[in-house]
Amino acid sequence: MLNCIIIEDQPPAQRILKKYITSIDNLTLKEVFSDAMKAKIYIENNSIDVVFLDIHLPKISGIEFLKSLTNSPKIILTTAFSEYALESYQFNVIDYLLKPISFERFLQSISKLEANTIPNKTIFIKSGYDHIKINISDVLYIKADSDYTEIITNKKTFLSKESLKYWLQKLPAKEFYQIHKSYILNTLHFTKVSGNKIYLSNITLPLGRTYKKTFMENYLN
Length: 221
Fold this sequence. Notes:
By secondary structure, this protein is of the alpha/beta class. It has seven helices and 15 strands.
C-alpha cells in the first residue's frame, strides 16, 4: 500500500484526483493540501510514498517545491501547461499529467509508479503461444521492428508483439530510457556516449536528437 498526498489549490482538480486515487486499491490518500509549504512540513514528519503535485501553486511553484525537498517521495506532476515537462524530469518525476486528466491516463501513471516502487526482477514476454520469463537485468535494449519489438538480452533475442510504448510503461523508468524513436536502452549496460551514439560493450546504438538532452541530464550528470 502506497501512502499519498495531493498538493493542488483548485477544488475541481482536487476532486478529480481524490476520485481517481480512492479507486486504486494500492493507494491510500492521507491528506490534501493547497499550500505547498504546509505539505512540505507534513512530508518531513510522515511516511509518504507519492505526491500528486500541481506546478502552479500560491506562494511557491511546484518546481521550486521539488528543489526544496531533501528526501523526496515519488512525484507525479499535474498541470495544465506542457512547457515545464523537460525541466521537471531532472527531478526524476514519475510522470507529467496534463489537465484535464483522464482516468485512462491516470492509470498509466500508476503503472509507471508501481514499476518504480514495487520490486520486479522478471518480466514475461509473449512469443507465439509461449510466455517466456526473463530477468530484467539481462535486457540490453529493446528495438522497434515494424509490427514487433525485439527484446535483446545478453543471451538471445526475443520477438514480441507489444509496442515500444508498452515496454516503456512496463519496465522500471529508472533503468529503461527511450534514446531514439526505435530504441529503449537499459541504462545499466551502457559504457560510453559519444556524439549521437551510445556504446554498450560490443554494441552501438543511435541517440536521437530529441532524446539526447534529457538523457545527458539524467544519466551523465
